[in-house]
Amino acid sequence: MHVEVRGLPSGRWFFYRFMHGNAVSATGRTRTAPAAHELPGRLRVVYASCQRWEHGFYTAWRHAAAQSPDLVLFLGDYMYEYARPARPEGLARVHELRLPHTLADFRDRYALHKSDPDLQRAHAVAPWLVTWDDHEVQNDYTANQGKDGTTANFLLMRSAAWQAFYEHMPLRASTLAAQGGFHSLKIYRRLQWGQLARLHLLDARQSRDRQACRPPGGAANPVQATECKELLDPARSFLGWDQERWLEQGLLADARARSPRWSVIAQQTLFTPRIYPSGSQSSETWDGYPPARDRLLRAIDAHPPRNSVFLGGDIHQNFVCNVEAVNARERDGKRPRVIASEFCGTSISSRSGTTQDKVDAIRHINPQVLLARCDERGYGLCDITPTRWSTRLQAVVDPLNADSAVRELAHFVVEDGRPGPQPG
Q1: How many separate domains does the chain show?
Q2: Fewest C-beta atoms under 10 Å: which of 214, 251, 335, 411?
Q3: What's the whole-model pTM score?
Q4: Hey, CA dihedral for 59, 62, 67, 73, is it positive or negative?
Q5: Where in the sequence is the domain holding 364, given as residue range(s)?
Q6: For residue 121, which of 63, 57, 52 has the smallest C-alpha distance?
Q7: Cis before residue 260, ω within 30 degrees of 0?
Q8: Residue 298 is assigned to a structural domain of this protein
Q9: CATH number of the domain enclosing 311
Q10: Which residues of the chain have pLDDT under 50?
């Protein structure tokens, strides 16, 4: 069901439920955005991503729902495509599903994930704004290429996965109708929250170029810039050229109007550069597309919105960063010029696959990174006002305990007109 109710007053809470025969759903709560000319006093946003079923209970969602957010931003990997794990030791729970190939397989995945009562509670407490990443289809896929490149079987599987995503996510019918079938969906879009915030929600999967120097049938591994010329090819795009222009035009409009107070770039992964001690860099994040990132940085720097904040996920780690202008350190020496702020969130349940010692080593050689933690699962809670942005990183104490408490890992603020997060 994709119900679109029109004509409701702005800035109001509403309650809803579904009835079919003798079946009656639980009551959900949603709200309309403020009118375009209004300046609301606060917007509370929960942002989250990456909820692998086996790796942990969805306890984070129960605590997030208790925060009574105005909006939930889900930034990708709503479900994972992996088959039942061969060894259940150390897992929170297991499932019996096979690796999905058909529409029925992908529908079963969403049925499994949506059976969780804490996730249901989070869906019922506030409206969601969602995008996807790779695991809704296949790990590290890009555009029309899976791990084995473009094949007829992969395209059929991808269309089935995209159809199941559309069926189960809160998306407008125009997401599908304007594009003609399940061969492409219009995922990127904007949401205006009065004069307070405008959210630019991105799609970094459907149109991006394949990872640099990724061998056919191989993984998207870190690469050395000196050994991978493809990495620096300016013709490669992370978002696709149409979406790049769409985003730049939207941010330019924000800058010219000096409204909204906060321009939010909500996307899947870490935006800030992150060089490893070995000198390599990820090929899967924006690090794998440096010219595309530089184009966006130059666009923000040339015509800066009043305040720009990036939100991300994917890496199963909490990162808080200063977003610096292109070549800021080389040009300005020890005084880098900060032009935006970034909060990249950890996972709801998915393990990080690294250690804190390794993450500390990364932070040591990347001074633009203010916080980096890989050992926590949870979500981010943002309270946005006309004068201040506040982000609290909420961490589940034990993701293998369905009744676990949650604690505040860190608190950062961004002041109006002063780019860069500061300790709260």
Answers
A1: 1
A2: 335
A3: 0.96
A4: positive
A5: 38-423
A6: 63
A7: yes
A8: yes
A9: 3.60.21.70
A10: none
